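Lecture notes, unit on binding sites. The following record was shown on slide 14. It pairs a sequence with flavin-adenine dinucleotide.
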Amino acid sequence: MTERTALISGAGIAGVTLAHWLARDGWQTTLVERAGDLRSSGNPVDIRGPALPVAERMGILADLRAVATHATAVRLLDPDGRSIARIPVPSRDGEIEVLRGDLAQVLWSATKNDAELLFDDTITGLRQDPDGVDVTFERAAPRRFDLVVGADGLHSAVRRIAFGPESAFSEHLGLYVATVQLGGPPDNPDEVVLLNVPGRLLALHPARGEAGAAFIFRHPQISDLGRGDTLRQKQVIAEAYRGVGWAVPAILDRLKSIEDLYFDAVSRVRLDSWSRGRITLLGDAASSVSLFGDGSTLAMAGAYHLAKALSQAPEDLGVALRGYESAHRRLTTPKHRHVHRVAGLLVPESRFALSPRNTVARVFSREAAGR
Ligand SMILES: Cc1cc2nc3c(=O)[nH]c(=O)nc-3n(C[C@H](O)[C@H](O)[C@H](O)COP(=O)(O)OP(=O)(O)OC[C@H]3O[C@@H](n4cnc5c(N)ncnc54)[C@H](O)[C@@H]3O)c2cc1C
């Protein structure tokens, strides 16, 4: 059999994991990444459940454990910064929490010798026939591939070109998320601190000696907010957290001089089918439930499901892509069902919603402390 060729758009968590597995199965793989390098920002993410055996088979578990964060408890604060509850974080079945940037680096180290990487470029056109896909790029010369995978995140270019406009598939969940590394040591290296006021959450994470902040807040969709417009994004955050007390004004002040900001709408992506002929979607591009802790786990598991399905039906791409979708939807569909409930717990909308959430947290806290 001649070597099969795959183009993966997006060298994020899903794309790099897939490149690793396709290379193992003998594919000649090219990654095209819009950014000029492998961006390393982001707050901690969890590698759990179905992603753990994937990491193990990739031989990266020890590397991930070496960069794991070690928060042992979550502390909830009232709007004045007084402690309401302290809930120990249970360690579950080998689950590992790492900074998103560390995960991206570890995955890339395991993959970099097996795939071609085109940085600072993006797909501009896709034209397929029964035997292949002709691809045009913004910068690179046109090429033809057997398979094209859109692993280019929430605002996927492959999805837009091959499936239709983002608005047809992406539902804004009424929240935005922004994450930054604050550049200084955390107050407490063992605790995640959550400060809620109605409609807004500030989470402070200790990670490998540095404090990270996540702003998660309710806000109507901002249609004219450019994705690279960091200045305007900072203004939106400052506006949303105006009047919130405790350490928030000092953190907003610090934010002004930080360049590496991750900012996005919290969105649910849903499509009836993830594939069109030889073009398929993976990770957030196919099924984002961004924010709710499982994005990276689902991205890694999805990449593995796709590679496995392709290796099980090497002669029939249609069968393989249907197999991938049916295996992986079993994981994503339940997550999609619960997004509004999780959003309500994480960022209660009103004082009436916040109060029962805090009461439950106090009960947990007392039980954990044996009182
Ligand atoms: C820099 C960064 C920081 C993040 N930080 C957080 C965080 O703090 N909290 C959180 O909940 N989630 C964060 N995320 C999202 C999180 O990584 C994903 O939800 C999850 O890991 C699913 O992975 P994915 O590979 O599908 O998407 P992603 O990890 O988002 O990867 C998509 C990749 O595609 C690239 N890309 C996008 N458009 C194009 C294009 N047109 N052409 C080529 N490449 C393209 C992106 O640069 C990125 O490398 C972050 C994503 C990025 C890129």
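Take-home: The two ends are 67 Å apart (CA to CA).
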